[in-house]
Amino acid sequence: MQIAKWGCLMVPRPCFDSLERFKLLDPETISNDSPAVLSFLYDCPVCSEPLVSYCHVRNYLMLFIGNEGTFSSYRKITEKILLWALLVAEKPLASLSESDMESFFEFSNNPPADWVSSKSVPRFKRQVELSSKNTYVFNPQWRPYVCRVESNINKQASCLEYKMLSSTMTTLVVGADNFFKHLHNEGIVSANPVSHLRVAGGYFAHGPDHQGDKVFTKREWGVLVETMEAMALEDPGCEHTLFLMMSVYHLRLKPVEIDSLSSTWRVCDLVPLNSGDYQLMIDPASHRGVSVVSGEYVKRHLERFRRYKGTHVIPLANDNSPIFHTKKLRPGVSSGYLGVLFRAACKEAVARIKLGAGVVSPGSGLHHASITWLRDTSIAFEAFELTFNEVDSRVHGRKGDPFHEKYFGWHSHK
Fold first, then answer.
1. With 70 as the cut, is the pLDDT of residue 342 above it?
2. Which residues of the chain does CATH 1.10.443.10 include?
3. Were 116 and a residue from 33, 41, 159, 371 both cysteine, which residue would form a disulfide, CB within 3.0 to 4.6 Å?
4. Neighbour count for residue 202 (Cβ, 10 Å)
5. Tell me, what DSSP letter sits at residue 143?
6. E strand or H helix at 259, and its extent?
7. Are 293 and 270 in contact (CB under 8 A)?
8. At a CB cut-off of 8 Å and minimum separation 6, what does 402 contact?
9. Which CATH number fits domain 218-411: 2.102.10.10, 3.30.70.120, 1.10.540.10, 1.10.443.10?
């Protein structure tokens, strides 16, 4: 299906608010839903059956009101599909075909500028009326897609060149597949229009050959992270695995440190630095081994996991919960346990590549890597971007010349 390069007359608007306000909706009727949202739906093309399509997504999101992180993830995904169906395809959501969904993924990969915002903003704004009753109206700056740009870049041009990250596309495909699978199970659609697209694997990255000593290539590492994130979206219980693996990677931990010290590290032990990074004392008892941790770890991975656990409301400096713990919340984990989770994630990554008709060479690290690869890969990637002295000052447990030879010598061509 070719839609005249995504032309639509209406500006996309958010259809669902925060989980806190979503919980206030009556599951049995939409008559008390947001007046702003209902007015927007009434203005949508009648042929798209906007109210019915809205209810399909609304009822699906009701399944996730017990988990804010999962609700938020599926709200973003299903809302994009809903808005595209209403405003671009102008078709009922339940009638979308496989060809339609191919067009939707193409659209999402490079949406028009008026569907993209340069930053995340609140979906709605509160308006206080004379009657003292709070009402909520659309935030005119909100858009379904976000293209974050630096302040010194022309934002309009950057948004026009928006291209979805492969990891985000993977999450979108997986989420869309799960949504339509639900509609199929409920008898709302006769077939899942995403299942064949997902099996075909055109939206999943493929893995290259392995290079370097116990170090993933950037493509291999990207595939592995995408796989773990997709697993977490499919099964929220896998958020624990994702966080543990990213913690070992960003903290650059050795197996012996995991076994002997992982029960001692608390979230509040991460001390912010002026650079935007954080530092962690690896061995608090002896006050040795300070590791500088990237701000990305805290802002992306730790905060994601804290939202999953519900501890995000606690200020970071006051969060005394352990960084590493078992699923039963016992502080500390063993390197052997992490090794099992790590190998399972690698095998799943290989399986997904093959499912998508990709090829993983016998020499790929995804076939034979161990948990020690996480530390080695993390340091090696830093070595590509920073000088030896810069890396040496950030990493704990280094040993002079062997450290240089291991992480800098093999890519001296840099």
1. yes
2. 218-411
3. 159
4. 14
5. -
6. helix 255-261
7. yes
8. none
9. 1.10.443.10
| CA distances for 164 relative to 118, 142, 160, 161, 167, angstroms | 13, 18, 12, 10, 8
Cβ-based neighbour number of residue 295 at 10 Å? 13
Is 69:236 a contact under the CB 8 Å cutoff? yes
Radius of gyration (C-alpha) of the chain in whole angstroms: 23
Which residues make beta-bridge pairs with 384? none
End-to-end CA distance of the chain: 46
Do the beta carbons of residue 394 and residue 400 sit within 8 Å?
no
% of residues, the chain, pLDDT over 90: 56
Phi (first) and psi of residue 253, to 5 degrees:
-90, 145
Judge contact between 404 and 388, C-beta under 8 A.
yes
Instruction: Dig out the tokens for 229 from the structure.
Output: 């994130």
Inter-residue contact 59 to 53 (CB < 8 Å): no
CB atoms within 10 A of CB 39: 11
Structure tokens at 274: 């002026």
pLDDT single digits (tens) 241-298: 999 999 999 999 989 989 988 999 999 999 999 989 999 887 766 555 678 999 999 9
Bridge partners, 134 (sequence order): 128
139 to 121, 135, 211, 308: CA distances (angstroms): 8, 12, 48, 27
- What span, in angstroms and rounded, lies between the C-alpha atoms of 47 and 228? 39
